[in-house]
Amino acid sequence: MNSIEMKNFDKADETRTFEGHGFADFVMVGGRTVARGHFEPGWRWSQDVKPIVGTDLCQVSHLGYCLAGRMRVTMSDGTEQELTPGEVAAIPPGHDAEVVGDETCVFLDFGEIAEYAMRK
User: What pTM was estimated for this model as a whole?
Assistant: First the structure.
């Protein structure tokens, strides 16, 4: 690449809607997929994304930044961590997650998310 490549989430390459509580916008830039997820109050991966992808837990590796709201991530071994605005997180595959509180959680994801919430 010999020039600067820029995209804007307001003109996303793709938007994927969850089963009930939110959506994610995706842009391709620099040969990578970047997502901005809007996880509305009541969103839970096992209720809103599991029916789309068909796995027991999220099998995506996330690397991102929490812009707003709060989200609790529960790993397959039962350990939990809560993300809050301003935090950067690396979340390995094998987890469930849910929005905490009544504010939409907005999460910018640079991880391996090209197929996140993609119907199989």
Answer: 0.95
